[in-house]
Amino acid sequence: MNYIVLQPVTLRDFNNEIMAENHYLHGEYNLPYISPGVTFVTHALGLKGFEIVVDPRFEPQKHKVVDIEISLLDTSDAPIKVYLEPITLIIGQHDIGNA
User: Fold this and answer.
1) What is the pLDDT of residue 63?
2) Cβ proximity of 10 and 89 under 8 Å
3) What is the pLDDT of residue 13?
4) Could you tell me if residue 58 is inside a domain?
5) Which in 3, 4, 84, 92 has the greatest CB count within 10 A?
6) Of the given ranges (3-7, 14-18, 39-43), which has the lowest mean pLDDT?
7) Does residue 15 lie in a domain region?
């Protein structure tokens, strides 16, 4: 089955105010059946300005699947959306610079 793996990311400033909310696309994968509670090992995420990017400075991280979205409206072989646990990145603290 084809899956699109997404992760909700909230960008906050140092005053804990929400600056943006996005979904980071980890990629599209052909995997066996996945259910909520399954753990994915992914790259750590960081920021370049307001852009969410892979942060090579940190070890891979584990995130659980919290939701799976299957569209019954699309009759083609549309990929199934898998949502990982949401994370929060703080602008100024999670910046990776030119790494």
Assistant:
1) 96
2) yes
3) 87
4) yes
5) 84
6) 14-18
7) yes
The parent domain of residue 36 ranges over 2-90
Domain count, the chain: 1
User: 3 to each of 7, 27, 48, 59, 63, how far by Cα in Å?
Assistant: 13, 8, 27, 24, 16
Rounded to an integer, the average pLDDT of 44-59 is 87
Does 96 map to a domain? no
- Cα dist. 94→19, 58, 62 in Å? 14, 11, 18
The CA distance from 67 to 71, in Å, is: 13
Identify the pLDDT of residue 98: 59
| Residue 99 included in any domain | no
Q: Cβ-count burial of 36 within 10 angstroms (0-12 exposed, 13-18 middle, 19+ buried)?
A: exposed
